[in-house]
Write a structure and sequence with these properties.
Length: 359
Amino acid sequence: MKALVGSGLAVTFALPAGLAAVVAGAPSSQARGVPSPTAVADIPAPLLGAYQQAAASCPGLPWPVLAAIGKVETDHGRAGGATPGQDRGIASRIIGPPLDGSGATARVVDTDGGHLDGDAVLDRAVGPLQFLPGTWARWGRDGDGDGTADPFNSFDAIASAGAYLCGNRGRVDDISAAIYSYNRSPEYVARVLAVAARYQSRSADGATGASTPAALLSHPNLILSAAARADLESGLVDPRVVDVLGVAAERLAIHVGVIRTGHSQCVGGGSRQTRPACDVSEHWYYRGVDIDMVGGQAVSAGNAAARALADLLIRLPPPLRPDELGLPWAALAPLPGVFSDASHQNHLHVAYRVSAGGP
């Protein structure tokens, strides 16, 4: 929560459909805000529950918005390479730069004698939700019930951010205005809402993620070959492929070589004309994708980032979990749907088989 020089202008953003349904009080699981696979993959499991619990106590506050603030502020406590800790949720003592009035920030003189931020001259934002010491003094909450409100404790910080957004009225009537109060920047509001849309499942049972072809085409972590880009632009790619690419790109830089165009019709090469007993590839139905680079390196048995992506794909809930996962690690082959052969040592093959009643 940085102190920015505000424009004084009203800020209004249209809520993504899934979030709008939650705000409007949609029933049952949708009102609880079912996490998308992107949220499950990106948010540390204990913190996901903390975001949901904190938002549940504030009418009108969707948990994906609260979680998106945690993502934008410090990547859920991972800022600076920290790993969210198991001990009281403390990843590290994340402390922002001094608020000296430079850039877009306001000048904020010290309010706590340097007790929280170690700076007795100027204030600094602290903890995974980046509270100013003065703001924490008013809104700090004990989120884990240990008797102490600590801004460096993720559970306390999440509960306190929920309380702050809820405000004195005890509810949120305008989501964009609430986010704007947290950080007075229209760009910040837009970023938070974009992340929140990815965290909110499109379906009440959490069956699919929240990616769209348009979002993937501009995703900074996704590089597409010309053929794969054209396939994605066509609008014919299976929604599960779109969603799984969104989940992967949320955590890792990936390069997609092939979706349909450029892949043989038959598994193992050829076409129905050259192979009458052709076993048609799922790529042919836009249900497959080949990822040939992860983390800036070619997929291989020695690429740790690619292995991490494979592990992530295996753990995805159905129906987003791939029906076919070809990869270079033979040790994983016994798992359902996973295989490793000579043709899949340099890429990850991710595909979904025909659904009941399909072609």
